[in-house]
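Structure tokens please, single chain.
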Amino acid sequence: MMAELHLVFGGELVSPEKNVFKDVSALHLVGIFPDYESAYLAWKAEAQRTVDNAHMRYFIANLHRLREEGKKGSATEAMIA
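Here you go.
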């Protein structure tokens, strides 16, 4: 069974209305987690820690979905063909 890895990261946004980071080189990489539940708990802790700064935003990225994009028959392969 393939692990469903999740990356939790965040940083300061240019504007609270847009998901555009002010400085990509200053992103806070919280970590990579083996399941959504543990990633969610890490995301929630960071979001609560920075709740007073409206420009700070944290995200959960599903890394296992990125790995699946390269598989034969995937939507990405269909677009290239």
